[in-house]
Design brief:
single chain, alpha+beta
Length: 138
């Protein structure tokens, strides 16, 4: 059972066959699929699953805080099930591959008090950009 499935079960979220297959598709490390990619993979397991069902399920998972929506450079939104583990993202500027990274420094601590302008800063999102090994070799 995936971490996401376990979290959803613990919340008492009703796991229909469609919701279960979407959660199963999102299982794994460095998962950052678009809604269309989730639908395609879900349809391999449950051919009758509707695209609208996938979109609605993803929206519900985001609203529950169980999945993070990741947007980069105007590309399609991607869905990250690693919502309960602090991390940042490393994005290939050519192909859009996204990897979860865990930098040693706290991004909140990196923002000096003089640059907070009185804000009570509660979170920070950092995106590291570069070229992945596959694109660099091409």
């Amino acid at each position: 059972m995936s971490d996401l499935l376990e979290r959803l079960r613990n919340r008492g979220w009703r796991l229909t066959a469609q919701r279960r297959v979407v959660a199963e598709v999102l299982d794994g490390d460095h998962v950052h699929f678009t809604a269309d990619e989730v639908h395609a993979r879900a349809a391999e397991r449950l051919p009758e699953i509707a695209r609208a069902t996938v979109y609605n399920t993803l929206s519900e998972l985001v609203a529950l805080g169980e999945v993070i929506e990741v947007s980069t450079d105007g590309r399609a939104k991607r869905y990250d099930p690693n919502a309960h583990h602090t991390h940042q993202h490393l994005v290939c500027s050519r192909c859009g591959t996204i990897r979860d990274v865990h930098p040693a420094a706290d991004p909140l601590g990196a923002l000096p008090e003089s640059e907070r302008f009185g804000f009570a800063v509660s979170e920070a999102s950092v995106i590291y950009r570069g070229v992945c090994p596959s694109c660099a070799a091409a």
